[in-house]
Specification:
Blueprint lengths: L5 E5 L3 H13 L3 E5 L2 H11 L3 E5 L7 H9 L6 E5 L4 H9 L4 E4 L4 H15 L8 E4 L2 E4 L4 E4 L2 E2 L4 H12 L4 E3 H9 L8 H14 L8 E4 L3 E4 L4
Parallel strand pairs: 1-2, 1-3, 3-4, 4-5
Antiparallel strand pairs: 6-7, 7-8, 8-9, 10-12, 11-12
Helix pairs in contact: 6-7, 6-8
């Protein structure tokens, strides 16, 4: 039997929390709720949810700020909820790394459909694409092949896994520890310096296709894959 996906719902309106959590639990999700930023981060670190439904208009700390904080170290899917309808607000949320944006008032059925869509795309069970095309690069995980501008890269398994991870998360910033956890695994006994070495190797191999600047070093934080050269 498949393990239930864990959903964290963050909203300061109790009726919304009650309605959404009730509906999602009926669909088989394991649901945790929070009403402010502190409770959100506590639940996030404890539960490690598969997806977050996050209200933008929270007291003290906004959902935008929470989204930005989470994105510095994690790529957990985030759906933002807001009463705002301005395009600028929607764009801001997406630029901060949110996966989707739902405007209040909304139907729980619509929110559920969006949750299912995101989780289906992120599923490791084979539903996720094995072949990813992004700009000049093609990653074929079933063949363990990476091709950039027609040039096939000769990559070690970990170099390939690291590149594939960045390709699936373009523009997001990840700390060295977050990359170790997501690519090497949380139980791996390797130093953070390992990330620097592998990024350096990848830059060298991408330079053969003139794409050595695709990886950006974010001083004091880690790395992001921008696709800009």
């Amino acid at each position: 039997m498949a393990m239930a996906h864990k959903i964290l719902i963050v909203d300061d309106e109790a009726p919304i929390l009650d309605a959404v959590s009730y509906a999602l639990r009926r669909e088989g999700y394991k649901v945790t709720v929070a009403m402010n930023a502190e409770a959100c981060m506590r639940a996030f670190n404890t539960e490690q949810p598969d997806l977050i439904v996050l209200d933008v208009m929270l007291p003290s700390v906004s959902g935008f700020d929470i989204c930005k904080k989470i994105r510095t170290e994690h790529d957990t899917p985030i759906i933002l909820l807001t009463a705002r309808t301005e395009e600028q607000d929607r764009v801001q949320g997406l630029e901060l790394g949110a996966d989707d944006y739902v405007v209040k008032p909304f139907s729980v059925r619509e929110l559920s459909a969006r949750i299912k869509g995101i989780l289906r795309r992120r599923s490791p069970s084979g539903q996720q694409q094995k072949k990813v095309v992004w700009g000049d690069i093609t990653i074929d995980e079933s063949r363990h092949e990476a091709v950039v501008s027609g040039h096939k890269l000769d990559l070690s398994p970990k170099e390939f896994a690291l590149l594939a991870f960045f390709i699936r998360n373009p523009g997001l910033v990840f700390s060295r520890q977050a990359l170790l956890d997501r690519v090497w695994g949380k139980d791996a006994y390797v130093d953070e310096r390992t990330i620097d070495v592998h990024v350096s190797w990848l830059r060298g191999k991408l330079s053969q296709a003139g794409k050595d600047k695709w990886f950006k070093t974010i001083r004091g934080v880690g790395y992001k894959f921008s696709g800009e050269n």
